[in-house]
Amino acid sequence: MAIQILLIGGSLALLFHFFVRARRRPVQKLAMTVVFAGIIFLVIFPDVSTWCAHAVGVGRGVDLVFYLSSLVLLFLCFNLYLGQKTLEDRMTILVRELALQPHRAAPPASPPEP
Prior knowledge:
Elements: H1 2-21, H2 26-44, H3 46-56, H4 61-100
Helix pairs in contact: 1-2, 2-3, 3-4
């Protein structure tokens, strides 16, 4: 019972943090809401994960949850890598464009007025 309260509270806190701190598209917000609702549902009804595991040929529900979590984490890591690579490519293009621009001297400072 205590672990269920801890897991539900942690899930709600993470979901709240996601909505407050992250600027995301509505589709991403919906996806995260569905994921956290699924987590909370499985915490409240753990037998459902065991039933699903047996239906797909996995021995225990926790194993199925672990396998699916691993896939989600790999997807997120790959997605972050692609985003970082895109930013790196954009920065390279920007630096090249700035390097090819002629150097502009700063305008002379106006003398102080008495």
